[in-house]
Design a protein that fits this description.
Length: about 190
């Protein structure tokens, strides 16, 4: 199929079932459809809650500007057999002086617990530690997002701290848990 070949050729990172491709405004409708589910949007503290399509478009444009300045690197997660975007993943808060970056991701609810997040996160860890030469990758997770905490722990991340009552979502304050993985820890587990 022509679309698949076009997507395949634009892939930046390839997994067994996923491709990480550069996000564009062409993905806005697919991403917005996935984010309309409150179970997907609520734990995603990097986006407004609730989030309109216009706000999501603004966030995509803002992210592209941050990429141009070297503050961020992001991708849409494209599922190869389904031939569509199922979420996003990326680095932000890139600190080139200290070789650190925050990682964040989200998937549409129908793609949870199917290995897509694990595969995409492993691709990003390899990019960060092997190609970008990061010393540490950290993640900020809403305290109610148990599945993300378990995924990070399974991949070797350690809980490093808590920002208490950091985010106001759904009429209440939530803690943000910080998880970190060092390059030497990554090397021991994955190489």
């Amino acid at each position: 199929m022509q679309l698949e070949n076009s997507i395949e050729s634009s892939a930046v990172l390839r997994g067994e079932r996923t491709l990480l491709i550069e996000p564009s405004m062409n993905h806005l409708d697919e991403l917005y459809d996935l984010l309309r589910d409150p179970d997907v949007l609520l734990p995603n503290h990097g986006l407004p809650y609730p989030c309109s399509k216009d706000e999501l478009g603004y966030e995509l444009q803002k992210f592209k500007k941050q990429e141009e300045s070297g503050e961020s690197i992001g991708f849409c997660i494209y599922e190869t057999s389904l031939e569509h975007v199922i979420g996003t993943i990326g680095f932000n808060e890139i600190d080139s002086e200290n070789n650190t970056a925050a990682i964040g991701s989200w998937l549409g609810k129908q793609y949870w617990r199917k290995g897509y997040a694990t595969e995409s996160l492993r691709l990003m860890l390899d990019l960060g530690f092997t190609h970008l030469q990061l010393e540490q990758i950290y993640a900020k997770v809403l305290s109610t997002n148990v599945a993300s905490m378990r995924l990070l722990e399974r991949l070797g991340f350690q809980k490093e701290g808590v920002f208490r009552r950091q985010v106001f979502r759904d009429c209440t304050f939530h803690d943000i848990l910080v998880y970190g993985l060092l390059k030497c820890e990554y090397s021991q587990v994955f190489l």
